[in-house]
Amino acid sequence: xxxxxxxxxxxxxxxxxxxxxxxxxxxxxKVQPVKVEGKGQSxxxxxxxxxxALQVAMSMDDFKTLVIAVKAAGVQDAxxxxxxxxxxxxxxxxxxKLPDGTVTSLLKPENKSKLAYILKNHVAPAxxxxxxxxxxxxxxxxxxxxxxxxxxxxxxxxxxYVDGVKILKSVKVSNGWVHVIGDILxxxxx
Length: 190
Hints:
Blueprint: H1 2-25, H2 53-58, H3 64-73, E1 85-90, H4 92-96, H5 102-106, H6 112-120, E2 123-124, H7 130-138, E3 143-144, E4 150-151, E5 153-156, E6 159-162, E7 165-173, E8 176-181
Parallel strand pairs: 1-8
Antiparallel strand pairs: 1-2, 3-4, 5-6, 6-7, 7-8
Helix pairs in contact: 3-6
């Protein structure tokens, strides 16, 4: 009995210690709740929880084009689910790099499924903080994306890249991670 009590004490101490360590390393983003038009989970206003991937994107001017695309494709509910998920979020200037008329064309209702497919190529249905991405680089593992495609993760000059696109910044959100990128991850036919 004494042995079991000691073991329980040690396990509880380790759990408490590991929980404290995790919170010290994570950065939380404070965001004002934003109401999304619609009927799905993304339309729920929650003032108490930490922000999710969509709320973070909606709160920042750098992601206006991404948010417009997400709404046009009708995939906003996927970005607010409990996750975990990892979003590789392109900034506005990434969309500007596309050939003229591409974004306007993709935003048309008749191209909704094509736009949704491209956006799903930016979401991994898993938790990929920076340390896990670095581990994937060492083990030569690819990332499985919601589009059904696999993307390479590499490291060059102390920076991480996903399918050749540099990760500029990483933010912890309530349902996973948002990694800011400067280019669009266009799905390939491979």
